Task: structure prediction
Amino acid sequence: MEAISHAGTVLGVLAKDGVVLAAEKKVTGKLLDLSASTQGGYGGSGEKIFLLNTNVIGGVAGLTADANSLVNFCRSAAQRHLLTYNEDIPVELLAQRLCDLKQGYTQYGGLRPFGVSILYAGYDPHYEFQLYHSDPSGNYSGWKATCIGANSGTAQSLLKQEYKDDILVKDAIGLVLRTMSKTMDMEFAVLTLDPTTKTPKAKIYRPHEIDALLLSEGLTKKDEDTEMKSS
Result:
């Protein structure tokens, strides 16, 4: 839990017609090669937000190495369910499967718990759009809007004030961007229904698409160089 409290913020908002996820991306240095985030790959640079299945996106806060292992487990569980039942795994069932694994690591000697909290943004035909949160102990809970990681308390209080039950995706995007706009860099993803096929459609935004979103909301990303020059 301590590792998660110092990790980059991950925020999720449930809307009537979709779910929005955003994560603070910690860029460790200017010499880091970020070419993979602008060309090839699926959406972002794959540091904090992952596609777990066609109907579920996950946002992770905590130890990234642990997160990679859990993301692989989630993807395998989703594919096993698809193979067995010929349908996408329900969101809560996927959260349960992962929490069973997490809880197992808290009760055996010689093993440490996974230092990761995960937000699951998903869709299934029965309960439609859902947002779940799981922590290292194996507890999970459903949310309308929530935040994990550093400064989550401040973000939670802002969400409490501005969240409405009948919020739509386009307003949820604005709410998330306003809440996260203080961060230097972020990853961003939206899960909606395709209007023609009525199947869940995940979009993980690329960096230039996030910049365009920020501009459309009248927000701009802080730049370290500009700040240093102005001071």
About this structure: Confidence is low (pLDDT under 50) at residues 40-44, 224-231. DSSP finds seven helices and ten strands in the chain. The CA atoms of residues 39 and 163 lie 35 Å apart.
